[in-house]
Specification:
This protein has 7 helices and 17 strands. By secondary structure, the protein is of the alpha+beta class. The strands form 5 sheets. Strands 3, 6, 8, 9, 10, 11, 13 and 14 form an 8-stranded antiparallel beta sheet that branches.
Length: 325
């Protein structure tokens, strides 16, 4: 109940105080551009799966649907509240109207906040679904173009721990999602991008930061394995492809001294920062989102790996995923 009330007040704040909160009416950065300064991501798994199913099943019809647009429509129709019972009905309603020949522009032009949610959720999920090619077969397919951060065949456990307190160094909320598994399990690049951070951090231990090609997503993989945290060839400034093995799960961190395993249980800290303006990357307006439902959603698409020389792993499936827009 309290969370529902809080959602309503937050949405009212968006409507009447956009300059402070978010949306396309925010103050701009140094170049005067407008950008979102704050957002949360609480889209549940069933909504992600429903929108994905509608998108994929509609591609060979006269009225193809869009994964992100459907989720934004549901959010706008329910004032950002995903705790009610109207999500499925709202999406079904939009789908039926598109199938009857209406355009999403026509359906949404009078719906308050639709554009806000479309911009916000496009930054999080844009390009996750689309056409890709299986290189070995020369076959083009349509579906998920991104992967679970955990390789196929390697078990893990997780729970919704975003925002939980952390105390090492200073008191702070947990701005990521922990996936517990066996030391040495291969870690997978969720999507392609450029390696922006590599090396030791006293909080995250051996870690990797990868910026998506679109520039709006920064993936943070931390607490990697002692001694051999990274996949061979991984380098600062280098590019990785969606599904590549980038490192190995471990328990490093919580130490100013490098290569120390001070984390009690081996796990991957998986974080996702959303960037609408470059000033947010390392500035005071950083946006880190809860990825629990995203990790569960991506669980259907885990990259198969095989052992290589020197104890390394490499991906098995060759998939050509174009950089996301």
């Amino acid at each position: 109940m309290w969370r529902r009330i809080a959602n309503v007040f937050a949405v009212l704040f968006v409507c009447f105080g956009m300059k402070v909160f978010a949306g396309q009416a925010c103050d701009g950065g140094a170049d005067g551009a407008e950008y979102i300064k704050w957002m949360s991501f609480d889209v549940p798994l069933d909504v992600l799966k429903q929108a994905y199913r509608y998108d994929v099943e509609s591609q060979d019809t006269d009225y193809p649907l869009d994964f992100v647009q459907l989720i934004a429509y549901v959010a706008a129709k329910n004032w950002g509240n995903f705790e009610g019972r109207g999500e499925s009905e709202s999406m079904d309603e939009a789908v039926e109207r598109v199938r009857n020949g209406e355009l999403m522009y026509e359906i949404t032009k009078e719906i308050k906040l639709y554009e806000h949610y479309l911009v916000a959720y496009s930054a999080v999920l844009g390009g996750f679904v689309g056409e890709y090619e299986l290189l070995e077969m020369g076959e083009r397919k349509y579906g998920l173009k991104v992967f679970s951060p955990m390789a196929k065949g390697f078990g893990f456990t997780h729970s919704n721990d975003f925002g939980n307190p952390r105390s090492y160094g200073y008191s702070r909320p947990h701005l990521g999602h922990d996936l517990f598994g066996a030391t040495g399990a291969p870690i997978i690049a969720v999507e392609g991008g450029v390696v922006e951070a590599l090396g030791w951090n006293q909080y995250g231990g051996w870690r990797i930061g990868i910026r998506s090609h679109c520039g709006k997503r920064y993936y943070y993989y931390a607490h990697l394995m002692k001694d051999t945290p990274y996949a061979e060839g991984l380098a600062l400034g280098g590019e990785v492809a969606a599904g590549d093995v980038i490192g190995y799960l471990g328990s490093t961190g919580y130490s100013r001294r490098e290569n120390v395993s001070n984390i009690k249980s081996p796990h991957l800290h998986f974080g996702l920062q959303i960037i609408f303006d470059e000033s947010q990357k390392d500035g005071k307006n950083q946006i880190w989102i809860d990825t629990y439902s995203i990790v569960r959603f991506l669980g259907v698409n885990r990259m198969e790996v095989e052992g290589a020389s020197g104890g390394e792993y490499r991906r098995v499936l060759g998939v050509d995923c174009a950089p996301m827009e």
